[in-house]
Amino acid sequence: MKKIDLHIHTIATISDSAFTFNIEKLKYYVESMKIDCIAITNHNVFDLEQFNTITENLDVYVLPGIEINLEKGHLLLISDNKELHDFSERCKNVQDLIQTCNDFITIQQLKDIFGDLSKYLLIPHYDKKPVIGDKTLSELIEFISAGEVNSPKKFIYCINDSDSLVPVIFSDVRVKEDILSFPTRQTYIDLDEISLNGIKFCFRDKNKVALSENEGNKLFQVLDNGLVLSTGLNVILGERSSGKTYTLKRIYETSDSTKYIKQFSLLETDEDADKRNFEKLLSTKQSSITQGYLKEFKEVVDEIAKIDIRKNEVSVGKYIESLIKNATEIEKADLFSKAILFSESEFTESTLDNLNKLIESVRLLIENTEYKELINAYIPEENLKRLVIELMVKYTEETEQNLRKRWVNDLVSSIKRGLQMRTAATHIEDINLIKIATDKEKINKFTMVSDLVKQETEILRKDMQGFKIVASSKKYTGAGELKKTSGKMIGFSDAYKNYEDSYKFLQELKAIEGLDPTEYYKYFVRIEYKILNKYGYEVSGGERSEFNLLQEINDALQYDMLLIDEPESSFDNMFLMNDVNELIKDISKTIPVVVVTHNSTVGASIKPDYVVYTKKKVVENEVKYQVYSGYPSDKQLKSLDGETISNHDVVLNSLEAGESAYRERGESYEVLKD
Asked: Pick from 131, 163, 409, 561: most CB atoms within 10 A?
């Protein structure tokens, strides 16, 4: 197995923060991490002179490369180290085209610059920002077999997903003179002799890439001192002040996208503050559910808010009045009032919203790569392309027709004003009766929909490790509840008087100064979000802390790793055994989890995949932390420098306070049992 890192930065470009490259730091990185091959991949630039210096000073295989801004994503392009001058000249073309961090080149430009892409190793940002898009990836797929990810979690996902590219993980490190620690993101490949073609061969087979040298994808290196962890569940054991939390903090500081639940962080110390924070959490969840549940209703409210029925009634009144007056003033008719344009109605412009939605829908079908085969089985892609072209032509025609109508309307309006100034006859007011009738019907429908929305309904009921999460919709019962929803010092008394008449209520809301128009929909129905215990009652103070822990652990799935420091310090053993352990085990199937503990309920009952033991030593008045690790089934745990310690002793001393105490407790339990 060879350890490689094909993503290293040695030049500060417009895409980087300023840093000064240090060749000695690069040498130390390669030697300390025992790397066999690296690639120099700076943003949109290749420095041949610097590359030669690096090659001369390092005893490992060094490949020339460049990280290219391609179609708003990033692509690593790596060459063999033979035709360096040719590669350098081609990279200068990229450098000339990309002058700002927002610039990028197209696929065609990439092909024009580098010619035969099969000569190179192409690695796109795959599950790593800025990602190469699906469309770009599909156009280059014949030259690509591996994609870069940025965490063991994503690496394992791609390994297990048959449709994903072969995953690779690299440091993406800036080798600067003040760097204190190095990333542990490297990839092992099953290769005897390193060459560009050999690496490309390995990248075609998921069985030939791994996170660790001997344990495949079960383990990965987490610290630059050589400490490895399981991609599943890890437990860190040790006596008090032995370096457990210190080790956990180091893991947190050197890892990206990591959820860290610190010791005592969820323990209730101030009941009032804890209750306020819990209510804030409920409010956030409530707001999220409100937005999701009332999404369609919001669109209705926004549409109705634009209707001014009073203005429509005034317009109808003016129209009827002018119509009657015009009819009774026949004797005043003159040359100007008899002109056809004097009473001409304006053209109504077509609404193009639906046509625009159709175009976007067809484009979505064309550009979709995930279900392309299924879509094309029913609708050939050529037919979709012809359809979208015809729809776009139709859109252009309708837009042009609207512009003509607008131009004619402006002209007619101008002529009518001129005629009206020259006659004593009454002009019949312009009116759009169809729109007015439609507005009235919309209000009727809005009233019906609002009444349905106000009906009490259970929206959500979910069980979560002994707790029940319940969300329901209810009518507002007073102005105070409306005020609470707004979160502002605003009076709602007048508005609430019209709560049962939805349109009048909406008009009252519009009249309230300082109320956000985009949130009118929230005042029609109240969403109540509750956390209940297993007995169906609202949670107590201690139960709030328990729920918060479960929620924090659940939220960890948004991250790439979860760290928990001594959960037993804040919670009882039954809760840990029955609820927390089960949830942690489930999450460890998706992301690496590290738990620090000295409690047997967590340490032993949770059945970890890997064990780490920390021990404090004082050497020449200097505190040092010795770290041992191994599988739970190993007889001996091994330190990073080769020392061993009995796994049996570690477990008993850390979790049971030693074998004698363990036996004593066992005897006491037997007495109680009898």
From this structure: 561
Question: For residue 583, what pLDDT is reported?
Answer: 84
- The domain of 379 spans 330-425
CATH number at residue 55: 3.20.20.140
Work out the angle between the directed axes of helices 295-305 and 433-453 (0-180°, nearest 10): 140
Looking from the CA of 406 toward its CB, the CA atoms found within 13 Å total 8
CB 199 within 8 A of CB 181: no
* pLDDT at position 667: 45
Reduced to 3 states (helix: H, G, I; strand: E, B; else coil), residue 426 is coil
Q: What is the largest CA-CA distance in the chain?
A: 120
What local confidence, expressed as pLDDT, does residue 471 receive? 85
Let me know: does 166 contact 204? Beta carbons within 8 Å. Answer: yes
Q: Which residue shows structure tokens 């009116």? A: 431
- The number of beta carbons lying within 10 Å of the beta carbon of residue 319 is 17
Residue 39: CB partners within 8 Å, gap ≥ 6?
5, 6, 7, 8, 62, 63, 64, 65, 76, 78
d(CA 563, CA 260): 5
Q: Residue 569's pLDDT is what?
A: 62
Please give the tally of structural domains in the chain.
4
Q: Are 133 and 250 members of one domain?
A: no
Q: Which helix (H) or strand (E) holds 472?
A: strand 467-474
Task: Give the separation between CA 152 and CA 219, rounded to whole angstroms.
Answer: 9
* Cα–Cα distance, 140 to 124 (Å, whole number): 10
| C-alpha span between 355 and 594 (Å, rounded) | 53
Q: What was the pLDDT predicted at 665?
A: 44
CA distances from 214 to 150, 167, 189, 375 (A): 21, 18, 11, 44
| Whether residues 172 and 248 fall in one domain | no
Q: Which of 593, 571, 575, 573 is nearest to 584 (CA)?
A: 593
Residue type, position 98, single letter: I
Q: Which parts of 538-580 fold into alpha helices (H)?
A: 541-555, 573-575
Choosing from 392, 425, 458, the residue where a domain stops is: 425
Low-confidence ranges of the chain (pLDDT < 70): 264-277, 279-280, 283, 286, 330-338, 342, 424-426, 568-578, 599-604, 655-674
Identify the helix (H) or strand (E) that includes residue 559.
none
Task: List, in order, residues 6 or more apart from 476 with CB less than 8 Å away.
Answer: 482, 485, 496, 499, 523, 525, 526
Q: 3-state class of 176 per DSSP?
A: strand
Q: Distance between CA atoms of 193 and 586, rounded to whole angstroms? A: 40
Q: What is the pLDDT of residue 501?
A: 95
Residue 324 covered by a domain? no
User: How many Å apart are CA 187 and CA 216, to the nearest integer?
Assistant: 10
Backbone angles phi, psi at 428, to 5 degrees: -75, 125
Picking from 222, 189, 225, the residue whose alpha carbon sits closest to that of residue 208 is 189
> Could you give the CA distance from residue 197 to residue 121 in angstroms, rounded to a whole number?
8
| 550 vs 129: CA distance, rounded Å | 29
